[in-house]
Amino acid sequence: MNLLLALLLAQQPAAPPVQRPTGAAPAPAPAPASAPAPASAPAPASAPAPASAPAPASASAPAPTSAPAPAPAATAPATPAPPVVAPVAPAPAPERSGPPFYGPADMQVLRTRYGLDPEPPAFERKPVFRCWVADPTCGFVVEVNATSAYAYRLRQGSVKDLSVNRWNSARVQYDVWFSIPTMVETRGNLRYTRLSLGPKGGVIASDSKDIWGNVGIAGRYWFSRKRFAPNLEFTSALVFKVAGTNQMGKFDTVRGPLGFTVDVGFGLGGFGALVVGGQFDSPLAREDIPDGERTPTAGMFYLGFRGNIVWGAPAAAAVATHAIANRRITAP
What is the dihedral of CA 103, 104, 106, 111, to 10 degrees? Predict the structure, then answer.
């Protein structure tokens, strides 16, 4: 009996070596059934013992090696959020205890708002001839102006035939202006005259030794602050005839009613201006006035040049025009 058991055990196959799996251990497969052992020679007189079941294999057949799992993708490290900083309130500006209450930045804002120069002038420009010639930098100005102009004169003729005498002539005028600054402009610490207005008076002369007096107002508006600033001049005055040639052809004083004269000029600085204007003489023809003292309706239109006599040219032109008018022109 013992011999039979030893033979059965010797015929069993040797167990395979144990393999260590590298990946995940696969589920164990069912062990295959072993073949029955061959029948031995019949034993005399005793029944054969039942064959014992073969021992299961300790390890199953090696499974196919599985593919390695893909490595996880590299991710960028998360950027840390910036720390939250609480806003810092600006330090309050120190309060001034007194004036000035505006700083340089405030002054620039005000200049921009009101259209002023970014930088006020640092020095004052000196006027020419010490304000004897009008200038925007001057205040009160006293000036003597002379006018020489071409005149187209008219005078009423005979009342019976309604005739009108017309002729070309000349006009000379000498005036004294008192220019008072009426509207001024301030730039920094400097003041400039924008509009001047004041009284004026003088004499007017023409051909035939006719002389008128005039009293009125004169004004000038400056368009800029430069030395040769363009300006607009305007005058208006009452006129009255004081002398002329009488009916005997002699120079004599004349009684004349009030008339008026107006003109407008465009000039450069206070040196001179081109003027255009007119004059109207009222008649003196009442019935109680002798025929020799009566004066007819008259007038003129003129175009010429008016300037300050300080720089010479306007005075010379006026004297020359006056001489030519009295010597070369004869009224009808």
Answer: 140
For residue 212, give the CATH number of its domain: 2.40.128
CA–CA separation, 146 and 130 (whole Å): 19
Task: Identify whether 7 is part of a domain.
Answer: no
Number of domains within the chain = 1
Residue 174: strand pairing partners = 146, 203
In a domain, 267, yes or no: yes
Omega before 100 cis (within 30°)?
A: yes
Q: What is the pTM of this model?
A: 0.62
Residue 213 lies in a domain: yes
Confidence (pLDDT) at 68? 57
> CA 237 to CA 259: how far, in whole Å?
9
Residue with tokens 């003196």: 284
CB 152 within 8 A of CB 301: yes
Check: CB of residue 46 under 8 Å from CB of residue 4: no
d(CA 225, CA 214): 31
The answer to whether residue 167 is domain-embedded is yes
Structure confidence at residue 78 as a pLDDT band (50, 70, 90)? low
Q: Using one digit for the tens of pLDDT, what is the confidence trace for 43-65?
A: 444 444 444 444 444 444 454 55
Task: For 124-161, give the DSSP string.
Answer: PPPPGGGGTS--TT-SSEEEEEEEEEEEEEEEE--TTT
* Reported confidence tier of residue 75, pLDDT bands at 50, 70, 90: low
Identity of the residue numbered 45: A
User: Of 242, 41, 261, 274, which is closest to residue 148 (Cα–Cα)?
Assistant: 274
d(CA 155, CA 276): 20
Enumerate long-range contacts of 244-252, CB under 8 Å, 24 or more apart: 244/208, 244/209, 244/210, 244/211, 245/208, 245/209, 245/210, 245/331, 246/292, 247/292, 251/209
Map 39-99 to HEC letters. Answer: CCCCCCCCCCCCCCCCCCCCCCCCCCCCCCCCCCCCCCCCCCCCCCCCCCCCCCCCCCCCC
269/133 Cα distance (integer angstroms): 8
